[in-house]
């Protein structure tokens, strides 16, 4: 029986090759999208789930509130770990660690110069408690003793092979690894995680090293309750019965005891929160570790919706075309019923045909998936790969997808086709009565649904592109073109090479101006501090962003001065520029009245010497905040060169010459360090990588949805014209023109597209508004977005219909009437 079902199915496919092709292509596009998106979403949702009792593991993070404005830090104060260990109940393991980046690593050799590895990141100070929480496989050494003493280090297997190639792990124990000037001994090797993890650290230096080394001890700040850095991380593992809320409450009460509030802290607050381990990969507030990636759950769910829509479009095509073909198989069904076939047998037969088409589509999708991942390699998360043989959940997903799509696409057509009555079928009356009306209504409804989805994608794509264009071309309050940003090596911070470098490159003719300081006006880095202002009646205490730069900083970036003066070379760190937003927060309606007032910065009095116009300190996602610009107060804020280039001559390569000259000088002064620079406008563009990736995905989704919808529309047009062939012939004989015939055949389908436009417009408008809420400054949702998408969809549909309607309209009526 089953063999017979498949034989009939293949025979039917051969008889209706084009409809079968349309169904397979439509379903394969939807299934391949669903498969790739499943792989991406499954990858992100399974980060760090392999650890023992992950539901009991939390990171302690810090939330601040300054005059009602919240800010977030993934780190904690230095003394918190020890206090938590001794004063908080319900905690099983307390594991502090400190992240370190930008370190040069040296591996001594028996003879010759030691091997050097530049600017290593993902290094941490940790101890055995870290390995009590996170499950590493030990290849050499012991978790109990490996990090017990100062100046010990544990390496991951991959990093160990980098430092000591071709050496067995057991022989690596006792080897020396030098981190800048800190000499350590290898005491353990652990296996790299084979599953997705945000814990990508590969050098674990014993935490006691930090306590015994003067520089590192200063970084740890083990006695400074009022200082927080994201480098100082603290993980805890709770007892199975402990309440996270209770532990959080204990932490904040303990913090108040050790760091009681002062009168000037009124209106400001800080608190600790327990962030679940499974939230690390998604929480945008607290971010991930320095080189980690955070995923966006909204984006993940959006991807799932896109996959569902594309899958739904393919299924709609199948239902539409199968029910439209019903009349062509009605006699077959009538004969089968007359010969004794039951309705259940017919349903199984039609479902088997659907299953075969779906299976073909799944095979095509499996072949396409690796190509799609390569196509989107620029923003597919690193580490994603397709392994059908070892990824059991992937195979289960494919099986479930095949079954679900088969049932979703085939069950209703099977019910319709198997429901024909033999007596009516054999009298050519299968399409009379209410059945025809219900089927037609269903096809129209599904067609409208298709074009609602397609037009929604078009509108979303246009809006996202418009917002990206707006962000990249908006006046941000400073110059961003023709500026090179270059950071000097961290290990040369105590030398005078920086001044020598500046003196040498100043003579390069293509350079217009040079400034030395900290981060650029708009950057991913944030420096902030608390500054107070007393106006005689009350004290205004505010969290203020800081930008560091010499006297050329504001000139180079062309930041507009509203009142007072710019900073000069003779100014000290007690003279500040403030932005217009900060002036308003302090109560000055006129920027000029803010000039000359004193602000309290710790134990210092600082003078406002000028007010500059507002500029964006980050992307347009974030609102402009109170800000001060100051002369660098320490060497750490004075190691970035901002170099403005002169305009290029037409057809010239002035900038290439300038960069080559800068590089030559760099190599003279910093021979051991790589020359790395960025054009500032490129840095700004990186702020919107996520939106650009979204735009690319939406563009592809839009193209595929239009393609699938038009495929279905073409199939329906072919069915309609075939059904009305004799009617068209009669109308032509009676004098109807080609244009009239085309209008007759197209009107109904065009009206369905117009109806879809009416339905989708308010839905798209609402969704666009919700998405735009992510931006503090955003473009407008213009009426032409909807008009353009509706017109574009209509034109695409008319082009698709014209292939079949024009062909039917110009056909010789003699051929269509010959059988009458």
User: Main beta sheet: strand number and arrangement?
Assistant: 13 strands, mixed
Assign an overall shape.
globular
Question: Approximately how much beta-strand content do the residues carry?
Answer: 15-25%
End-to-end distance: 40 Å
Domain ABC3 transporter permease C-terminal: 305-420, 703-808
Keywords: Cell membrane, Membrane, Transmembrane, Transmembrane helix
Domain MacB-like periplasmic core: 20-251, 514-647
GO molecular function: transmembrane transporter activity
Index terms:
globular, 13-stranded mixed β-sheet, alpha+beta, seven-stranded mixed β-sheet, 820 residues, 26 strands, 3 domains, 25 helices
Give the structure's gist in a few sentences.
With 820 residues, the chain is of the alpha+beta class. Helix content is 48%, strand content 18%. The chain has 25 helices and 26 strands.
Structure in words:
The chain is an alpha+beta fold. The protein folds into three domains: 1-43 and 299-432, no CATH class; 54-279, no CATH class; 483-686, no CATH class. 48% of the residues lie in helices and 18% in strands. The chain contains 25 helices and 26 strands. The radius of gyration is 34 Å and the shape is globular. Mean pLDDT is 83; it is low at 432-436.
List the helices and strands and how they pair.
Layout: H1 2-15, H2 17-45, E1 57-66, E2 69-73, E3 76-77, H3 80-87, E4 91-100, E5 103-107, E6 115-120, E7 123-126, H4 128-133, E8 138-140, E9 152-156, H5 157-163, H6 169-172, E10 176-179, E11 182-190, E12 203-206, H7 207-212, H8 214-220, E13 228-229, E14 232-238, H9 244-258, E15 268-276, H10 297-324, H11 330-338, H12 343-375, H13 392-418, H14 422-425, H15 434-473, E16 483-487, H16 497-505, E17 511-517, E18 528-534, E19 539-548, H17 553-556, E20 561-564, E21 575-579, H18 580-585, E22 598-601, E23 604-612, E24 627-630, E25 640-645, H19 654-669, E26 678-679, H20 680-686, H21 689-723, H22 725-733, H23 738-772, H24 783-810, H25 813-817
Parallel strand pairs: 7-12, 9-11, 19-24, 21-23
Antiparallel strand pairs: 1-2, 1-14, 1-15, 3-13, 4-7, 4-14, 5-6, 5-10, 8-11, 9-12, 10-11, 16-25, 16-26, 17-25, 18-19, 20-23, 21-24, 22-23
Helix pairs in contact: 1-12, 2-10, 2-12, 2-13, 2-21, 3-9, 10-13, 10-15, 10-21, 12-13, 15-21, 15-23, 15-24, 16-19, 21-24, 23-24
């Amino acid at each position: 029986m089953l063999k017979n079902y498949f034989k009939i199915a293949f025979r039917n496919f051969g008889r209706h090759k084009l409809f079968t092709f349309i169904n397979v292509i439509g379903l394969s596009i939807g299934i391949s999208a669903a498969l790739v998106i499943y792989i991406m979403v499954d990858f992100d949702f399974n980060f760090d789930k392999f650890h023992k009792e992950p539901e009991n593991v939390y990171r302690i993070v810090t939330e601040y509130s300054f005059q009602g404005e919240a800010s977030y830090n993934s780190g904690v104060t230095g003394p918190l770990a020890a206090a938590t260990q001794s004063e908080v109940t319900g905690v099983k393991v307390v594991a502090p660690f400190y992240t370190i980046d930008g370190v040069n690593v040296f591996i001594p050799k028996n003879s010759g110069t030691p091997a050097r590895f530049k600017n290593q990141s993902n290094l941490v100070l940790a101890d055995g408690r870290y390995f009590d929480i996170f499950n590493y496989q030990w290849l050499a050494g012991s978790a109990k003793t490996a990090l017990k003493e100062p100046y010990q280090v544990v390496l991951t297997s991959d990093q160990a092979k980098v430092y000591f190639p071709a050496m067995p792990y057991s022989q690596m124990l006792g080897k020396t690894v030098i981190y800048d000037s800190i000499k350590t001994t290898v005491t353990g090797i652990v296996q790299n995680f084979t599953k997705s993890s945000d814990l990508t650290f590969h050098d674990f230096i014993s935490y006691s090293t930090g306590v015994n080394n003067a520089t590192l001890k200063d970084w740890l700040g083990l006695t400074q309750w009022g200082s927080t850095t994201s480098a100082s991380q603290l993980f805890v593992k709770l007892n199975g019965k402990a309440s996270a809320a209770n532990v959080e409450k204990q932490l904040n009460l303990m913090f108040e005891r050790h760091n009681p509030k002062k009168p000037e802290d009124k209106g400001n607050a800080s608190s600790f929160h327990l962030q679940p381990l499974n939230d690390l990969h998604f929480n945008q507030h607290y971010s991930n570790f320095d080189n980690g990636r955070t995923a966006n759950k909204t984006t993940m769910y959006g991807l799932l919706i896109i996959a569902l829509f594309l899958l739904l479009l393919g299924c709609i095509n199948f239902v539409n075309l199968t029910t439209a073909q019903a009349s062509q198989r009605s006699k077959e069904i009538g004969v089968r019923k007359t010969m004794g076939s039951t309705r259940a047998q017919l349903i199984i037969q039609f479902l088997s045909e659907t299953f075969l088409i779906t299976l073909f589509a799944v095979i095509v999708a499996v072949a396409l998936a690796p190509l799609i991942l390569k196509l989107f390699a620029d923003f597919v998360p690193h580490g994603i790969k397709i392994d059908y043989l070892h990824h059991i959940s992937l195979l289960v997903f494919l099986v479930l997808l095949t079954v679900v799509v088969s049932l979703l696409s085939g069950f209703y057509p099977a019910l319709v086709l198997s429901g024909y009555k033999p007596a009516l079928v054999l009298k050519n009356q299968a399409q009379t009565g209410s059945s025809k009306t219900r089927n037609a209504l269903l096809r129209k409804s599904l067609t409208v649904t298709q074009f609602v989805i397609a037009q929604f994608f078009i509108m979303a794509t246009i809006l996202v592109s418009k917002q990206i264009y707006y962000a990249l071309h908006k006046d941000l309050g400073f110059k961003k073109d023709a500026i090179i940003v270059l950071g000097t090596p961290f290990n040369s911070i105590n030398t005078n090479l920086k001044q020598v470098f500046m003196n040498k490159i100043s003579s390069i003719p293509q350079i217009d101006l040079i400034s030395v300081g900290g981060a650029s006006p708009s950057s991913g880095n944030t420096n902030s501090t608390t500054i107070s202002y007393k106006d005689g009646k009350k004290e205004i205490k505010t969290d203020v962003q800081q930008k560091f730069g010499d006297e050329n900083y504001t000139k180079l970036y062309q930041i507009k001065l509203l009142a007072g003066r710019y900073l000069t070379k003779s100014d000290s760190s007690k003279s500040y520029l403030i932005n217009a937003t900060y002036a308003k927060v302090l109560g000055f309606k006129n920027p000029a009245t803010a000039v000359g007032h004193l602000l309290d910065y710790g134990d210092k009095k600082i003078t406002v010497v000028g007010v500059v116009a507002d500029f964006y300190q980050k992307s347009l996602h974030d609102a402009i905040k109170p800000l001060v610009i100051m002369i660098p107060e320490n060497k750490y804020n004075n190691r970035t060169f901002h170099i403005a280039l002169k305009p290029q001559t037409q057809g010239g390569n002035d900038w290439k010459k300038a960069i080559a000259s800068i590089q030559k000088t760099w190599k003279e002064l910093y021979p051991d360090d790589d020359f790395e620079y960025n054009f500032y406008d490129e840095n700004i563009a990186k702020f919107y990588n996520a939106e650009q990736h979204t735009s690319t995905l939406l563009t592809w989704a839009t193209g595929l949805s239009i393609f699938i919808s038009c495929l279905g529309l073409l199939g329906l047009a072919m069915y309609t014209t075939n059904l009305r062939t004799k009617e068209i012939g009669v109308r032509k004989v009676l004098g109807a023109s080609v244009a009239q015939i085309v209008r007759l055949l197209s009107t109904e389908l065009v009206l369905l597209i117009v109806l879809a436009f009416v339905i989708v417009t308010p839905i798209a408008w609402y969704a666009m508004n919700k998405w735009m809420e992510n931006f503090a400054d955003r473009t407008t949702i213009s009426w032409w977005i909807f008009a353009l998408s509706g017109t574009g969809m209509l034109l695409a549909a008319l082009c698709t219909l014209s292939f079949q309607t024009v062909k039917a309209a110009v056909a010789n009526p003699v051929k269509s009437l010959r059988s009458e």
